[in-house]
Amino acid sequence: AIRKIIAREILDSRGNPTVEVDIFTDKGFGRAAVPSGASTGTHEALEMRDGDKSRFMGKGVLKAVENVGKISSTLIGMDVRKQREIDMLMLEMDGTDNKSNLGANAILGVSMAVAKAAADSLNVPLYRYLGGSNSFSLPVPTLNVLNGGKHAGNDLAIQEFMIQPVGAETFKEAIQMGAETYHALGKYLQESYGASSANVGFEGGYAPKMEKTTEAMDALMIAIDRAGYSEEDIKIGLDAAASEFFDGENYKLDGEVMTPEELTAFYIELVNNYPILSIEDPFHEESFEDFENLTGELWETIIVGDDLFVTNPERIAKGIECGAANGLLLKVNQIGTLSEAIDAATLATRNGFSLFVSHRSAETEDTTIADLAVALGADMIKTGAPARGERTAKYNQLLRIEEELGDAAEYVRL
Ligand code: PGA
Ligand code: ZN
Q1: What is the pLDDT of residues 321-335, one digit of tens each?
Q2: What global pTM score does this model have?
Q3: Is 111 marked as a binding-site residue?
Q4: How far apart (Å, rounded) are the C-alpha atoms in residues 168 and 173?
Q5: Span from the CA of 138 to the centroid of ligand 2 (angstroms)
């Protein structure tokens, strides 16, 4: 049973406060910390900030910490293994659609810490607790090696340029391929754009002074080649995060103003010229129709909804109905409980979607999403560059899980 719950304000990787929760049971302990986005979707659950300008520029989370206290008085004495009941109880306590009463950051901190405390009490790894005895598959890491958009101080409109080592035999090999390519890219950028071009953005990817999408794509291709890999070994994933360069009518990128039709043609051309496996948020977050068109045109490419779906089963259901995408980006803090995030994943994968479990641009040392990706049998995990502690924490956890699974481990084949 749950004996004690403690919450505190800690720092995330952007230097802003976030919520950490500790849960003690008779037999176990669980600790979880909540991530935070920069290019957040309008329909995400509410991240509660104090707004008190005298602390952390208003970004304090003491109210959310206090709300964990309120939640805690209800949960003390409950069986920590009752994840769904606990999550639903918190939804009830909150009583709003977007968790604005207690804050999704308060609720999620508890939800994840409950799962970890339960796994610890039962003495099983978190991935097996969440996914069952048949959790054996390791996701393809989609490594964000070059940053633009809101995550970097350059002129690239597209937010993320990711490498996907699909040709690896194991997760461990995939990480090696990714790290080698990351370093080859850093070296190439420094040679061609000067020393400062290897400075990094929010997710550890390089943030060179570039303006054009194709410039970034060409740099990636050169890096993959220099690292000794081919187009079969390593694919490319993009996250346009297009809401960020949409002006209400058109899209501003690469020094041009594009209509949705022109942007569609732009993506098709990119897919024809580069080994692109996935494109996330190619259009703004309400544009189900433009998504649908592109998904129809590029049926061999995974079109992923992030801001479009915000890990929300209702929005995902709408997307399934109109064929707006064939991939789901799953971010636990967009929805606010582990149970609802798992519901979102189930809904999407039952309808043939690829599943990408994802971090946020501000992260902590918490590794819950690594275990969640294995538990859900996710196709990919997106958790930044193969560098920076808050990013490598997740990749390193997956290395441990693969080791623990031993011969039973299987690297996802896409
Ligand atoms: P965010 O970016 O965490 O800043 O929202 C990640 C993403 O868009 O996938
Ligand atoms: Zn995204």
Answers
A1: 999 999 999 999 999
A2: 0.98
A3: no
A4: 6
A5: 21
